[in-house]
Amino acid sequence: MARIGIIGAGISGLTLALLLREKGHSVRVLEASDQPGGAIRTTRDHGGWIAEWGPNTIIESSGRIKRLIAMLDLEGRRRYPDVSAKKRYIVRGGRMVAVPESLWELVRTPLLSRSAKLRILQEPFRRRKRIVPSSQQGGSSLHSVANADFHANDESLAGFVRRRLGDEFLKWPIDALVGGIYAGNPERLSVQHAFPRLALLEEQHGSLLLGQLKGGIRRPPGSDEIPRNKAEIFSFDDGLQVLPETISNRLGDSVSLNSRVAGIESAHAAPSGKIFSLNGRWKITFADPMEPPLTFDSVIYAGTSHGLKTITMPDRLSETVSPVAEVPHPPVVSLTLGFHRRDIGHPLDGFGVLVPGIEEFPILGTLFISTLFPNRAPDEDHVTLTTYLGGTRRPEIAEKSEDEQAKLVLDSLRTLLGLRGEPLFLHRILWSRAIPQYETGFGRYLAMMDRAERDHPGFYLAGNYRTGISVGDTINAAFDLADRIDRDITGNQKTSLL
Ligand SMILES: Cc1cc2nc3c(=O)[nH]c(=O)nc-3n(C[C@H](O)[C@H](O)[C@H](O)COP(=O)(O)OP(=O)(O)OC[C@H]3O[C@@H](n4cnc5c(N)ncnc54)[C@H](O)[C@@H]3O)c2cc1C
After folding, report:
1. Which of 19, 199, 273, 296 could share a disulfide with 5, CB 3.0–4.6 Å?
2. pTM to 2 decimal places
């Protein structure tokens, strides 16, 4: 058994704590805010409206996610969206167009011109571009990690899509999708890091279309990954916060809220500066000087990447990881509005609508929340819509007042959804640093994090700035990391017995 300190009670830190405790270790989660869950938080209004602050759904992308829900006895509270929420819309020419779901619909859709459709059909005949994985480029010294050319083979998503599917496919469906997932810019995001499955489809099959027809990317034997086209999305009866709340309740006293970590110290540093983690070698200090320091055998930093620069660390560790704090996070505003159903001209028969940057709307997209989960509105005569603003595309909108932002959203919804009335409910959250952007050259940050862990045994980094931005990605990564930490500890204990 080892004593493990975990900084941050977002879904990464909480899942790690639960899994490591299952493996017999003693865990302590230290969270700066007064609530567990990090970006996952739900407001349940007395009038019957439910609004999410951050994510609205989780994609069930692996058997491990199902296992976590089962471990927590949450299967009875899990909610899959209503079948009526399957359709997705994208704006083209100022109006909403349904995303084609079959080859026949693709042929007929007004979302793309005839020449763009022909370009897509020619995709299997385009030559592949060979991309050398960034893991093969890592330098052996700190100097070379910082200076290795991690941009050399790292193609932007825009470059990749333009090359394989054409400019029109990039400007409408892809730009809309990237706005909806990353609130980001396809010209800046790395296809290899932000959309690794696309890069792998090309690498393995030479074509995205043929790759899809052949069943998608090849998974390693034993993988429990569920293919994206088969993976369902879900939430819980009372909103997504049910998940972190339940994990936190299970962990009980092992979670300390209002405990902002200010420093990580290593009790033993060799003259080379290499830090050894022996029993109780990691000391954690708190921003509140009244909070006594704690010591651990291992420490996991599961906070945000920008939070790294607010924590003091041993010099060499700080030198290695502090650049990771520079990973860009554009601001995003999440505005949830409630209306009388009769005030909306559109049937809201789908998941929502995404807006490409080329269209004349200030919003990134709107989710038809009460179509997905009817209990998010007080009754069937009311509807709930969540709209996102800002992102890399329009960061200045995040600076505007709540009234100005609400006006931008209401004007957009009037045009797109035939909205007539005024909102009955409003819930707004500004995320000044919302989602990490895996831009080209992101491999250098991964190399720094790998190096920090290699040089400082017992220190680990976890979270959406490393292993994927979705909640599903962070849960999957927590399973992998918990196994790795357990193996490291077992290995260390065997070595110290010899
Ligand atoms: C607006 C928005 C919408 C999103 N929509 C979706 C979606 O629909 N589906 C999806 O899958 N994902 C979505 N995401 C992404 C997803 O929510 C996050 O990537 C994920 O929740 C991150 O979890 P995490 O534990 O890695 O980090 P976080 O949730 O950021 O948790 C980090 C925690 O560490 C704490 N912390 C930081 N520094 C310290 C310190 N010094 N001491 C103690 N504690 C500290 C923080 O307070 C925080 O609680 C969305 C995100 C946002 C912002």
Report:
1. 296
2. 0.94
